[in-house]
Amino acid sequence: MWVGSLVCALSLSLSLAAPAAAAPAAKIRVAVLRVDALGIPRATVDNLAMLLRNSIATIGGFEVISPVQIDMEMRNPRNKAVASCEGGPECAVQVGRIVRADRVVFGTIGELGQDFSLNLRMLDVKKGVELARQQGNVSGNRDMLIPEIRLAAFRLLAPDRIRGALLIDIDVIDVDVEVDGAPMGKTPLTGPIENLTPGDHKVRLHREGFSEFVQTLAVRAFETSRLKVELKKTDAAAAPPAK
Questions:
Q1: Residues spanned by CATH 2.60.40.1120 within the chain?
Q2: CATH 2.60.40.1120 for the 164-237 domain, yes or no
Q3: Whose C-alpha in 3, 40, 90, 104 is 20 to 30 A from the C-alpha of 51?
């Protein structure tokens, strides 16, 4: 009995002494509201809005409120006044408060011939102010809107997390690879060089006995750019040893 009491006492003291685990940070709740269709089929815009929700859901720290939950709240008779609101920032904020969102996203997608426009806004529900806006234009077919939607999600909520990658294709080993002056290792690399910001990057490859390669290459968001390099031996390296 005494031993059992001692064990219980020790267990209690250890549990009291142990630091409490930090509670996980609450996710920011995001409601994607109606995205209006301008000259483009409603079904197409609904599919793009679903893609927008799915893209936001992949960003760590954010939680997307189900459109079913939003629809149920708007069908509730007590929210009739808000449900009949004609749109705009004020209405978006009111809807956000009803569904307990921290952020609301809404906007328009338009089509004119083979030109498409995207206009999305994000508001802070508590403060009622605009936090970000994403506008873009693409030409071609409707499939061109798919990468634009994903990019828009990150630009609205997490622009600092937009990254691309670079794959170096080279058949010479032990070549030093640098990107913007930072060493990335020697060839063969284990995979693409990741976590690069979109835009131009200066790539330099060099190895003793081979010609140096320097080129500025554009890296696109969420894409892996491919760079094929052929290094040639210098004259000194190619020449036979003197007898």
A1: 164-237
A2: yes
A3: 90
How large is the average pLDDT for residues 167-192?
96
Assessment of whether the complete model's pTM goes beyond 0.90: no
DSSP H helices in the chain: 2-17, 42-57, 67-75, 80-83, 89-98, 145-157, 235-238
pLDDT tens digits, 7-65:
444 344 434 445 556 667 899 999 999 999 999 999 999 999 999 999 999 999 999 99
Alpha-carbon span 95 to 173, nearest angstrom = 59
Strand partners, 115: 112, 139
Whole-angstrom Cα distance, residue 103 to residue 97? 9
Are 210 and 232 within 8 A, CB to CB? Answer: yes
CB 177 within 8 A of CB 186: yes
How is domain 28-161 classified at the CATH fold level?
Rossmann fold (3.40.50)
b/e map 92-129, b = 16+ CB within 10 Å: bbbbbebbebbbbbbbbbbbeeeebbbbbbbbebeeee
Tens of pLDDT along 188-235?
999 999 999 999 999 999 999 999 999 999 999 999 999 999 999 987
Place of tokens 């999305």: 120
Spatial separation of the C-alpha atoms in residues 169 and 192, rounded to whole Å:
10
